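To fix ideas, we give here one paired sequence and structure record:
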Amino acid sequence: MNDEPIARRLKELGYPEHVWRAGRAGLIARWRAFVEEVERGYPLGLEEYRNDLDVRAIIARLGLDAEVREFDQRLERMLTARDKRVWESPSEAGAAPFWDFGYPSNAAGDLLEGLKAEGLT
C-alpha cells in the first residue's frame, strides 16, 4: 500500500487531518520517536502514553507491522509487568497486541504516578 491509499484509508477511518496527511512515514516516525522516548525515560503521563500506543494500533490496522518490527522489538525489551494490561488498542484480528501489556521498566514521574493511581504497579 503506497502513501496515497494509506492517507485515504486513514481519512475514511476518521483519523484527524494531521494523522492522514503525515501518512505512512509520519506514523512510522511517530512510533520510532515514542520508542526512543521510552528508552530514554518516557517524560509524559499515562494518558499520553496510551495515546502513543494508539499510533501502533493504527500501524497494525494498516498492515504496516513489518515496517516497525525493529522498534517493536526495542519496546518489548523495555516492558515489565507483562501481565498487566495498560491499554486496549482496537484489534481487527481479535488478539490483544503486545503493546497493550506492561509498562516501561524505567517508568518514573507522571507515568509512574498514573500507573500507580490505576493500580498497575
